[in-house]
Design a protein that fits this description.
The complex is a heterodimer of chains A (296) and B (433).
Chain A: E1 2-13, E2 16-27, E3 31-35, H1 42-49, E4 57-62, E5 65-66, H2 67-74, E6 78-81, H3 93-103, H4 110-118, H5 132-144, E7 150-154, H6 162-177, E8 181-185, H7 189-195, E9 198-203, E10 206-212, H8 214-217, E11 222-228, E12 242-248, E13 251-256, H9 260-266, E14 272-278, H10 282-289, H11 291-295
Parallel strand pairs in A: 3-8, 3-9, 6-7, 7-8
Antiparallel strand pairs in A: 1-2, 1-4, 4-5, 9-10, 11-13, 11-14, 12-13
Chain B: H1 2-12, H2 14-45, H3 52-60, H4 71-105, H5 108-112, H6 118-151, E1 158-159, H7 163-175, H8 179-183, H9 188-206, H10 214-226, H11 231-237, H12 250-270, H13 275-284, H14 286-291, H15 296-306, H16 310-316, E2 317-318, H17 322-349, H18 357-376, H19 405-428
Antiparallel strand pairs in B: 1-2
Helix pairs in contact in B: 1-6, 2-4, 2-6, 3-10, 4-6, 4-17, 4-18, 6-17, 6-19, 9-10, 17-19
Amino acid sequence: MSVITIENLKKYYGKNRGIEDITLSVNEGDIYGFIGPNGAGKSTTIRLLMNFIYPTSGSVKVFDKDVSPKGEIIRADIGYLPAEVYYYESVKVKDLLHYSAKLKNVKDLKWMNHLIELFELDINRKFGQLSYGNKKKVGIIQAMMHHPKLLVLDEPTNGLDPLVQKTLLELLREENKNGTTIFFSSHTLSVVQKMCTKIGIIKEGKMLENGAFDGIKSKKLKKISIESADMIPKGIFDSSEFENLMIDKQSASFYYNGDINDLFKRCENLPINDFNMHEPELEEVFMHFYEKEDVK
Amino acid sequence: MILDITLMEIKRLRKNLIIAILAPAFYSMLIMVFYIAFADALVDMVGIFDNASLQGLLKAFSMDSNTFSYILNYYVAYNGVYMLIMGIIFASMLSVRLFSKELRDGTYEFIYSNPISRLKVFVSKAAVIVIYLLVLNVVVFLVGLISIEALKTKSPIFPWLSEENIEMVVEKVDGNPEGLKEAFTLDESLFYDVMYSGLNDQFADVSLEDSVDEEVVSDLLTVFLMDPDNIFDELLSDSKYMILFNIKDEEMFRTLIESQKENYFYTKDHFGSDMTIVAPMFRSAPDVFLKQLKTTDQIDRFGEVFGVDNKSLDNLYMYYSFTNYLKLSITTFWVMLSIALFIMMITIIVPNGKVTSGVVTGIAMLIYIINMTGSITEEAKFLLYFSPLSYINMDVMAIKYQTELWSMVVMFLIIVISLIVSAVSFEKSDLIA
């Protein structure tokens, strides 16, 4: 069953582009990663999905119902976490959560209280006194307290420390097992790699990809930069495993998707001062991969 | 669910709301306390109106020299418009907090991600404004009432000349005409006042006719105020007055005036002694007689002489009319509500939450300036139609005090239209800053 169906969606803010042409679908049980650089239109798409704004053209359906006339009914089964959580600063967290529970018609507060304990949230403080990460926790509990059939999460792991991230991802996986469909946008490749069954890539308001994630998953892509004491000889990294290669005298940077031992063998005779290896930003990778498609 | 949202809005804005209620209430109380000092000064000021032509002017507006010192007049003069402006500005800032600032701060996502329609959210938020204005007006009404009750004895007493009261008084006096001697000071001044009132009544209808120049009537009344006994010589001195009596023949006019003159002086001579002459005069102008009594002693003696019980006496002589005060307060609430909801509509229809507190304060001040300009000059009077502030009837001592029906209808329409336009715009607009 299709949970989200977006067709030829277009949104302009006056003369400014929000999104140009978005078509995507998310099925029941999917964990859908929505990826794109800043300004690509991720938030606009999510706002349209939540019916905060109205489309210029195209349609957004959730649970096979159009979101704009049926928003009230649909939102009963959606949990939404905004990228930046702004709630009423002068109100205690406890009151905000109970208020949410009333609006969502949640009678049994056991699950909500369990989430509060799980995230170790101090609910007796005013929302304005919380740190960025703790504000996010309030948002997460707000989004999940009513066991929604669909979770819409805008940058869910952003600003959370690794331990809390881990807790959240475990929780999401568990909810997904219980049948919750998850739609989220993220910048972090490892999160998308670990979580997603499906991805959508958006650039400049248009869809570049909408489908299974297997092709990307198999690539163990690393971003590597090397500082050497000597000049780095040209040709040393000439192979298909190296992409986006940049050599400038004593330093080099590239994406690598081969065996790490092979890389070390190639560098055997090179006196290395500094070696830096990390996971690349997700869009960096995708933008690199889809540059050619973008040209057409 | 609507109630939950309303309560949360009140909770998160509680500090603003408390200030917005206490500030006007405190202002009102302070102004009323000043009445202690002002009351005496106002009574002194009344001396200015001893000048005959100014008295004519006052009477033309059916006021007397006490009009400015009655406590309720003071209340309206110093509280009326300022209280309105304050209430409107606070309510408008509340609209900004409820609608446009929520967009700018991004807090709207909190409510709208829940299963609730925008219409319900709108109704809950608009209810906060209505509740605020209700509470504000009740508090201000009570503060005013308590202050007026505490200070009213500083105010001159006012004979409340309703039809029932006049009927009651005339009946009592008819039963004991001789009592007039005891209850009132039947001096020259009272006689002149009664005569003036008679002249006024006599010419009130005449001056409405197109053929009569209003100046002729006012000239005559001014002459009377300067030197009453001279009025008949004045009438005979100029043929322009003939038209007032609708007589063309000069000889007939002269005969009429001569007989009236004789009548006038006979009445004047017997005013203090012959109650068969005074009693009919009382019947024709009871208000003039009753206004002579200003102290509680005089009023008590009047009650004793004519056997009027204390309760009827309290209804007859009052410091202020509670009914008028109540009507004034209700109209004030309506005016505040209509302008506040109108400004709320502006905060909603302007997209992206661009309307700030500065903007709404500016709009409120603009309405105030329109009102001021319209009140000052005759040419700009039409401006008053655009300022509901002017819809308040300031004549709070009038027996039949009411707000004109058309202005109530206009305010009602403003309220309904503002609510409908706001709701539709709120439903259809993009929630984004």
